[in-house]
Amino acid sequence: xxxxxxxFFKNRRLNLAKDMEDNSVLLLNSSSTILRNNDTTxxxxxxxxxxxxxxxxxxxxxxxxxxSGESILFCREKNPDLEKWDGFMFGLEGAKxxxxxxxxxxxxxxxxxxxxxxxxxxxxxxxxGKDTLFDNKxxxxxxxxxxxxxxxxxxxxxxxxxxxxxxxLIKSNEEIELMRKSCEIASNAHINVMKNAKLGMTEFDxxxxxxxxxxxxGSRFPSYNPIVAGGKNACVLHYIxxxxxxxxxxxxxxxxGCEYGLYASDITRTFPINGKYSSEQREIYNIxxxxxxxxxxxxxxxxxxxEPQIESETVLSQGLKDIGxxxxxxxxxxxxxxxxxxxYHKIGHWLGLDVHDxxxxxxxxxxxxxxxxxxxxxxxxxxxxxxADVDERWKGIGIRLENDIxxxxxxxxxxxxxxxxEPDAIEALMKS
Length: 432
Ligand SMILES: [Mn+2]
Fold this sequence. Notes:
Blueprint: H1 6-17, E1 24-29, E2 35-37, E3 40-41, H2 48-54, E4 62-66, E5 71-75, H3 80-86, H4 91-99, E6 103-106, H5 110-118, E7 123-126, H6 132-146, E8 156-159, H7 161-169, H8 173-196, H9 203-217, E9 227-230, E10 251-256, E11 259-260, E12 263-264, E13 267-272, H10 279-297, H11 307-322, H12 330-335, E14 362-363, E15 366-367, E16 375-378, E17 381-383, E18 398-400, E19 403-408, E20 411-414, H13 423-431
Parallel strand pairs: 1-7, 5-6, 7-8
Antiparallel strand pairs: 1-4, 2-3, 4-5, 9-10, 10-13, 11-12, 14-15, 16-19, 17-18, 19-20
């Protein structure tokens, strides 16, 4: 259970029902328990969209939201024997009372009851393509419902991803509070680990310190597998081996964030393991820093959400050109996307219940415009692989700088600003 009041989820459902056409239903399913090996499971994590509308954190559940505002939950029947092994379950009555559903049914009856519940409706909305097994179930329930009565109209199956995604994109005050807390825990982790990092430590040592800091701060799980990449491992974007020694003179790139009340934070810092950046590392770092700062400034209410991308491409290209790593005119570099040799990911992503929040960047060919209370990461990077046709002294440098940025009425707020971003400030922190 989180800090969000249950009424909040009920109100969300009522509000969302207003965005549905009349005589329609939205169906969402929960996550399932996933086996890790033999009979051991991964820790259960509720599906973010399902959680967003229910607050309910048990597996094997299905929510039906009617356009009338009525909401129905299928969940597991309370089972005292199973509770002795796996712990508390709400059961049908508990779920109805505690999560403010109008009706609850046993999940075992879903195949039998759902066709009856949706029979005669005009539209069935769901998040199509996210879970093929559930998509197939929807289709079978729909055809069963369609065949119940010869003279009724057929139900239209419609994708609700953009509608729900746009809702999730704009955070409520309650959500922002949880995100601030998530960002605070992760920021403290980065600060404390940088203070205590020492030459001789391995990637694994640092990873353990981060995970411990998250837990100490009150977060049970990281919001994604942390990346702790020493030296040239930093050029592998999703490096998660996290098991090598970090050599004297190398930097370590750490991309690590935590989850609090199911809300994600996502922070990256790249620091020198011996406490001092080399002149080459510092030169590259300063280009990334400038791209970061310009990209943050592009977050303005009314501006396209792709503006930070354009800013970062321009600043990184100019910087790489200035130090001789890219050649030709700035226009040519941008037009031919030559910067992609060194900057091969995007500037950032929406952040929320998912670290890559399940929200759109454009709809019907039009970019989403920033509005107050959207949260986006800003994370430019430069990665110089051994294969690059550049002077040896640059090779193996990989730097990314990432902060979590809230769009505000007046501009933006960096939710992770307590972690130093400037090289001087990072060196000072490591000395302290
Ligand atoms: Mn990120």
